[in-house]
Structures are given as structure tokens and as C-alpha cells.
Amino acid sequence: VPLLSDLLARVAFLAATPAVIGVFVTASLLVVSQDWRLNVIALAAQYFFVALLMTQLVRLEMAAVKGLIGWLVCLVFYLTEQQAQSLRRDVDSGSGVSVQNWFSARLEGWRSHGISARAAFGFLAALLVALTAYVAAFAIPLPQLPRGLSGVCYLLIGLGVLLLGLSQDPVRVGLGLLTFLSGFDLFYVALEPSLVVTGLVGSISFVITLGMAYLRTAHVAGGSAGGAT
Amino acid sequence: LIAGLLLFLALPLVVASVVYVFRGWATLAALLSVGTALALGIAILVLPLGRTVELWGRQIVMGGRVTFLGRELVLEEVDRIAIAFLYLTAAGIFALAWRASPGAMLFPVGLGILSLLSGSLLIRPLIYAVLLVELAIALSILALQIEGQQPTQGGLQYLSFALLAMPGLLVIHWLMDRYALTPDDTGLLEASAILLALSFALLLGSIPFHLWMPSVGADSEPLASAFVFTVNSGAVWFLLLAFLESYPELTAYVRFGPFASGVGLAMVTVGGLFAASQRSLGRLMGYGALIDGGVALVALGMESERGLALAFLAVLARPFGLALMAAGLKGLRRGMGSSDGLDALRGVAWRSPWSTLALVVGGLSTAGFPIGVGFAGRWALYRALASSDVVDVLLLMLASAGVMVGICRAVAALFWRPRSSDGEAGDVARDAPSEGVLTAVVLVLAVTACVGVGFFPQLLAPTALRLAGLYTFLAP
Description:
Largest sheet of chain A: none
Number of helices of chain B: 19
Helix content of chain B: over 70%
Number of helices of chain A: 9
Mean pLDDT of chain A: 84
Distance between the termini of chain B: 42 Å
Oligomer: heterodimer
Low-confidence stretches of chain A: 225-229
Mean pLDDT of chain B: 88
């Protein structure tokens, strides 16, 4: 926590427009990307930017605790996907995937197929949600929050619900639930800056992550690997 | 000196960790779970409030106010009955799961959920109760997943809808605090009422947020589904009433009766229509739970102590029907490779007669037909509504008939007797019963309890009346 709060203090100058842009980019990436590595990185970055924005509302230490819980959640997702990939490799008896191979495969895919229809739809939907969030922040500003942060809350909640609606894969549903929860947490921390509430909301995030990890592992172990690739 | 309240939070968690470790020894895990839930359910009813009791050399004091991690835990009479209901219901479901789903995650997870839900009933203020209920719901997904099968879509939907309900419930607390400071601002009351209605509509699975209920029944572990429909749903009902009781200004400002009745009738109508056309027994169970929830809302909509008692009677009777139905469904699914479609279940009754009996009696009770517990509450509700709302009574009866049509179609498929020339299908009917003696004994005991309480509803009715009398928000 001291390390993270020190880090947040050093980059406090980003806790305005850059952090808002960061949240938009990372949350949109979660909607658009089907790649679990990108998604885990995007989620970790999203938690960082949300914690940074929270420093405008609560003490640095509390924002750091929330950021730390978020990063723990990302770690669980990462370990789960690692486990799922190794289980799939066992089933497919293929070789391991190096970073270089992964980049080559992506580049080849983009060259030959361009952007997938699903990604394009996700990006347009994310833009539409962002526009709605911007309008909602002016029309129905959230109490106890600056207008910019209201917009971020609406954006995260909207993109979280969008993620819930776009997929039945447990990991992507989990990403949606956590994004939704991040958006609400940013709002609620201004209303109830209590450590117990922080702990309980963090516990909910953690149990959701464990649940999704269990479902993902069950999915792959059941011999029907699919979903996030 | 031990604060008795803490026992209800800590003991299930301790036993849950032991049960998880010994999950491989199915009988030990099940008996530990049943024993703990049963002992705590009886203890909270029997131990006198505010007096010190000596138990195994330790002094335990029950009731009063206890501070835990800086928050206040308060045990009132309502909470006492509510906690007893949750624990005793869970004990019954664990007992059925002992034979139907040995080694299931339901045992440790169920105990963890019981601890969280007990905490939600005891803790003040209500925002912590909401968070604990959400935590319990998030934990439920571990029990709902069937091992080695596709991820439970019903569980994911349940979790999603429940989480969408959380913001509204938390914000109501803040809005009502603001209203206490500015009583002229009725906009705060309006916003609170809208959030309350929307949030509980999501949590109780009312129309149009009901999709998770049939899905949970269809693709989740049947007894874990019954746990969600009875224990989790029961805790949500008590949370709703705690909100109504805690904010009398809200109850006085909004006439919630017609709204609750309307939503309840929509639930029973849609549930009845879909139940009649179901070809999956799991989904039929889900629609049965939806209708039962709607019936309780219609009773609550009467805005009287009698109506509240009838709502409680529906909540108290629900576990008998749904748990029995789930146990029967699990037994039938096991015989047919996890499928519960009517085509797959043709003739299975000859091989799984006790599971079939459990499914049929549980289904009768859930439908609100005679010989099941559910009938007593429904009949009393019909009589209470008959003089003023005949259309409502007709809709409630048609919804019951819808579930019965579903049950009759299931019975026709289950007892299908193939002709001797039907080859492979004929083997199903010729198979000897595949259920063990112990399974048969457990199922027959559960059926007897359901029918027995159905014949003597006075076993439940006084509790429902007593609970209704403890709430004051309906007083003129």
C-alpha cells in the first residue's frame, strides 16, 4: 500500500483529464478485445486510473487500497487464464506460445482479415456509451461528485453493462461486472468513505473474480475450451 | 462469556472450511453441514434472549447489542425467526443433497452463505446488510456450477442482476439521510422509491428481470438452485421488509400496495404461461419459483397485517416444494446423463420411482395444489382476495394450473411405458429401480414432511402471523 500510494502521489498530476482518457481507453479495450492478455493489462490499467481519480475524493491511502484490491483481482484473472491455457495446451498437445509468436499471429490476422466485425461493433457501441455518459453527466450530475467524475462513473457503469450484454463467457461477464462495480465504487466512495464499505466492496470484487475463475477452469477442464483466446 | 450472535457468524465459516477439506468424504461433509445448520437453527429459537446460558462449560449470552469490527449487531425477534428459517431450510436442503449430490460444493458454500446472510439480518445500518447479501449471492455461483459442465449461464445472470441491484439500495440510505435533514424535498423520497422498486425487482426476479430464474433451474445444480430460490430469496424478502420498516416516511409517501400487486400478478401470469409450455423440468422449477414469488408480492400488496402474514406463509412454505422438486430433478437427471428434457426422461419413473415421487409432490406444493404445503397459503390468499379482486384470484389459479400442466406433462413422460417392440427405449422401463434404500428413505421422509405440513398448516401459520405482527410499517 505505501508503495502504491507513493506511486499515486507521484503521478497525481495525471488525476484529471489524462486519467479520464485512460479510463475510456482501457474500458473500451475491454469491450473490443477478445485477447485475455490485453484484457488483463487493460483491467489493471483501469484500476490504476480509477484509483488515481479517487484521490480527488478520498485520502490517498484509501485510493491505494482500492487500487491494490483491483490489481489482486487482475492477478487472479492472469493466473486463471494461465491455468486455462496450460490445460488447453495439454488437450491440444501443442507447443507453448511465445510473445513473438503471439505478436506475429496478431499482425498476420490483422493483415489478412482486418478488424473483425465484432471488434468494430464493440468499438462503435463503446463510443455510443461514452457519448451517452457525457450527456448524462450534464443532464443528471451525480451528487457529491465533480461533473467530470460523474461522466467517468456513467461511462464505467455503461461499458460494464455493455460487456455483460455482449458475452456469455464467464471471464468477459466477470470483466463487465468488475467494470460496473468500479464505476459505482468511484461514485459511492464520495458518499460513504468508510473503510468497512471499502473492504466489503473489495470482497465482492474478489468473490466475483474467484467465481469467474472457477467457472472458467470448469469450462476448460470440461473439455470445451473456448471463449477468451 | 461468548456473545451468542457471533456464533452464528463464525461457526458456519469454521465448519465450512472443515467441510471443504473433507468434501471427498461425502457423508461426513453432509452430516457436518446438516448438524451445524440444524443445531444453530434450533439454538436461535430455543436459547432465551438476554439471558446467560451455560453450554459445555461456556457461558453464552444471546441477544442484545454486540459490536463487531466497529459495527453494531442487533438481534430482534424478527431476526431470530428469520435466521432460524434460513438455517432450518438449509439443513433440509443439505440433508437432501447428502443423497442427491454427495460431495457438492453446496455444503461448504452454503454454510458460508448462511454466515453472511445471518450477518445481513443482524448488522446495522442497512448498507452493510446489502453488501453482505451481495457477497452471499456472489458466493452462490460456486455452488450453482455443476462440476465438469459448461459454465452456468443461470448463475451468471443471477449474479449480474443482483449486482445491478446493489447501487440503488446503497444510495437509498444516503438519500433518506438527506431527506431527514430536508423533509420538504419530496424529490428525495421519489428517487428512493424508484430505486427501491427497481432494486428489489432485480433481486426478486420480477418481470422483466426474471430471466435468471428459469435459467438457474435449467443449467445449475438443482439443490443449489433450490437454495438460491429459498434461502437467498428468503433473506432478500427480509431485507425488503427491513427497508420498509426502517424508512416509514417512504412507506407512507408511496402507496406500494397496488405496485406490489401489479408486479406480483405480472409474475404469476408470465410464470403460469411459460410453465405450462416447458419441456425442461429445471426451467419448470424456475417458473414455479417465479410464480411463488409473485404470489407473495400479491399478498404483500394487500397492505394489511393479514396480507403480510400470507406473504410470510408463502415464503415459509416455499422450501418444502422447491427443495423436494430439486431433489427429484437431481435424481432423474443423474439417471439420464444430466438432461432434464421431457424426451430424455421418457419412462425414467420406472427406474427412479422415489425421485419421481419427490418431483411430483414438490411440484404439487409449488403449484399450490392440495396435499402440498403450498396449497394452504394459496387457499387462504384466494379467500382473502375473493371478495374484492376476483380477477386476481382467477389469475393466481390459472398460474397454478400452468405449473400443474407442466407437472402433468412431466408425469406423462416419466411414466411412459414403451411397447415391447420399442427396442432400446424399452430397456429403460424394464430396468430395476436404481435408487438406494437410504436415498429412498430420505426422499420419503421429505415427502412426508411436505404432505404432513400440508395437512396441518397450523404448524407454519402461527409463525407467519407472529412475524407479520412484529412489523409496524403497515399500521395506520
